[in-house]
Amino acid sequence: MSFSNLVSDIAFRDARVDDGSSQVSHARSHRSHATARSYASTAATSVSISGEVSSQLHSGYSHPLTRAWQADRQLTKDMLIYPLFITDNPDEETSIPSLPNQYRRGINRLVPFLAPLVRKGLRSVMLFGVPLQPSAKDALGTAADDPDGPVVQAIRLLRSRFPQLYITTDVCLCEYTSHGHCGILREDGSLDNAQSVDRISDVAIAYAAAGAHCVAPSDMNDGRIRAIKLKLIEAGMAHRVLLMSYSAKFSGCLYGPFRDAAGSCPSFGDRRCYQLPPGGRGLARRAIQRDMAEGADIIMVKPASSYLDIIRDAKDLAPDLPVAAYQVSGEFAMIHAAAKAGVFNLKDMAFESTEGILRAGAGIVISYFVPEFLDWL
Ligand SMILES: NCc1[nH]cc(CCC(=O)O)c1CC(=O)O
Ligand SMILES: [Zn+2]
Ligand SMILES: [Zn+2]
């Protein structure tokens, strides 16, 4: 067998051990087959080949394993946080039409739902409270830290039933305020920053005291990271409670399904005076640096796929902190809708979008795809 034949034979065998999962990787193997032939014949004539050698890239990713080696980091189950919507109606289990496969669940539905996921390797959930009784909402978001409310109850329940599960809690008022804004309002309808920070830090402390491992304020009031950190220190919980900041949270179109799920749409106006403007890269960088200085343990960027440059900025500005990215409800719903329309395969796109998020610099991904990833990984 000539050298040239041997090389092609190896290339061909590699093509056969290839996962064969897509036309593209099959076509790639054929290309590397052809390349191996021409490289071999060049070598045989002992011409200077340095230029041609450095032009060869296919050799580095002709096999599923070597393709995996090309990524700085690969998605693992440890990186995933799954958002859960918990209502104040204990037996509720209601699907959310704009958020495929996701449900609002009452406290009695949580353990049966989560047990199989925990068995499959679920490591962390993020809790969102959804009060359904209209009486539960007021101007101060009083229900947010109600000791009998769904979030505090869920923290206690999940800590006792799933001791290994890491409990993160979104901290905000918009699900609990009558006006649906993420804080306490002045008479003119603008956020009263000082009052809001005081209230939101109290809510964070209540979740931490109930046993949350992590509190994650999503309200975007200025100074809330410092306020929460100081109260955690004062309460003797700073050593055990992680503070994850939604540092770079942008306003825009992508939270619609979430607001359907959580009933947290503002009753007037919008969130553009506190969530960041989509073009505001400088503001995002300042918010990230500010939150690091105020004591954040993890920096989060949200949404994810339209803000990959911000994720990279976060990793560059905070190289010593984990960076999280929230693939939000609108991103998830878009991927589902496009898959349904035949644009692509759902699983392939779920992986591709997540690879982009990891490549940008995130090491933690909050995603509604988590139950599926537990099967796919
Ligand atoms: N402040 C509450 C909050 N926390 C997380 C999300 C969005 C999550 C998603 O869309 O999946 C929101 C909605 C909003 O700010 O309007
Ligand atoms: Zn909010
Ligand atoms: Zn909020």
Can you put this structure into words, describing what you see?
5-aminolevulinate 1 binds at residues 259, 271. Homooctamer. Its EC number is 4.2.1.24. The chain is of the alpha/beta class. The chain has two domains: 3-69, no CATH class; 77-376, Aldolase class I (TIM Barrel, Alpha-Beta Barrel), CATH 3.20.20.70. The chain is 44% helix and 14% strand. The protein is built from 14 helices and ten strands. The protein has helices spanning 3-17, 23-44, 50-54, 64-69, 107-119, 150-161, 193-210, 224-234, 256-262, 281-294, 308-317, 329-340, 346-360, 370-376, and strands spanning 80-87, 93-95, 103-105, 124-130, 166-171, 214-217, 242-249, 298-302, 323-327, 364-367. Strands 1-4-5-6-7-8-9-10 form an eight-stranded parallel beta barrel, surrounded by seven helices. Helix 1 (3-17) runs antiparallel to helix 2 and helix 10 (281-294) packs parallel to helix 11. It is globular. Bound molecules: the ligand NCc1[nH]cc(CCC(=O)O)c1CC(=O)O and zinc ion (2 copies).
* Structural class based on helices, strands and sheet pairing: alpha/beta
CATH architecture of the largest domain: Alpha-Beta Barrel
What's the number of domains?
Answer: 2
Radius of gyration: 24 Å
- Gross geometry: globular
CATH superfamily of the largest domain: Aldolase class I
User: What is the topology, as strand order, of the major beta sheet?
Assistant: 1-4-5-6-7-8-9-10
Characterize the main sheet: 8 strands, parallel, barrel
- Number of contiguous helices: 14
Q: Mean pLDDT score, rounded? A: 90
Are any ligands bound, and if so which? ligand PBG, zinc ion
Q: Report strand %.
A: 5-15%
Following the backbone from N to C, one meets helices and strands in this order, namely HHHHEEEHEHEHEHEHHEHEHHEH
Parts with pLDDT < 50 across at least 5 consecutive residues = 1-44
For the secondary structure, the number of strands is: 10
CATH topology of the largest domain: TIM Barrel
Measured distance between first and last alpha carbons: 41 Å
